[in-house]
Design brief:
Number of helices: 5
Strand order of the largest sheet: 2-1-3-4
Protein name: Arsenate reductase ArsC
Strand content: 5-15%
Radius of gyration: 15 Å
Distance between the termini: 25 Å
CATH class: Alpha Beta
InterPro entries: Ptyr_pPase (IPR023485), Ptyr_pPase_sf (IPR036196)
Number of domains: 1
Largest sheet: 4 strands, parallel
GO biological process, one term: response to arsenic-containing substance
Helix content: 25-40%
Organism: Massilia cellulosiltytica
Keywords: Arsenical resistance
């Protein structure tokens, strides 16, 4: 199964999602991330956070959704439409879900406040990815509508639930 985490800039939230998913996923499952308008660079704080969590990021880079090496089975948008961001719409014949997360790279304040925003985004994304990976395999293979409903429900988890 190939999962695409999609955002506009592909520098922070989609990168965190890709790295965490690939770190936790079973063999044969793969995540990648991309952006509709990639920044061309990865967010240094996101990279530092992932390194501190022991999650490798070797080979990751900010990339466009044009020319992906595989066709995704599932596309997860992670932009925060509640904050007025425009979420890109992947137009392939894939299952889509939205897991909006506030962009920690736009948070201003003290170092501690900015670090807390990155930790919060990481916690939310990790909880959602863990919930995705915990879905029963028969649910993934069978009923597409039930799979979509489960993914949409996961997108509401706030990171504080076990």
């Amino acid at each position: 199964m190939n999962i695409l985490f999609l955002c506009t800039g592909n520098s922070c939230r989609s990168l965190i999602s890709e790295a965490v998913f690939n770190h936790l996923a079973p063999a044969g499952w793969n995540a990648l991330s991309a952006g509709s308008h990639p920044t061309g660079r990865l967010n240094a704080r996101a990279l530092a956070l992932l390194a501190a969590k022991g999650i490798p990021t070797d080979g990751y880079y900010s990339k466009s959704w044009d020319g992906l090496p595989v066709t995704p089975d599932v596309v997860v948008t992670v932009c925060d439409s509640a904050a007025g961001e425009t979420c890109p719409a992947y137009l392939g014949p894939v299952l889509r879900t939205h897991w909006g997360v506030e962009d920690p790279s736009h948070v201003t304040g003290t170092e501690a406040e900015i670090d807390a925003a990155f930790e919060r985004a990481y916690a939310i994304l990790r909880a959602r990815i863990e919930a995705f990976l915990a879905l029963p395999p028969e649910r993934l293979a069978g009923d597409r509508a039930a799979f979509k409903a489960a993914l949409d429900h996961i997108g509401k988890l706030d990171g504080s639930m076990p």
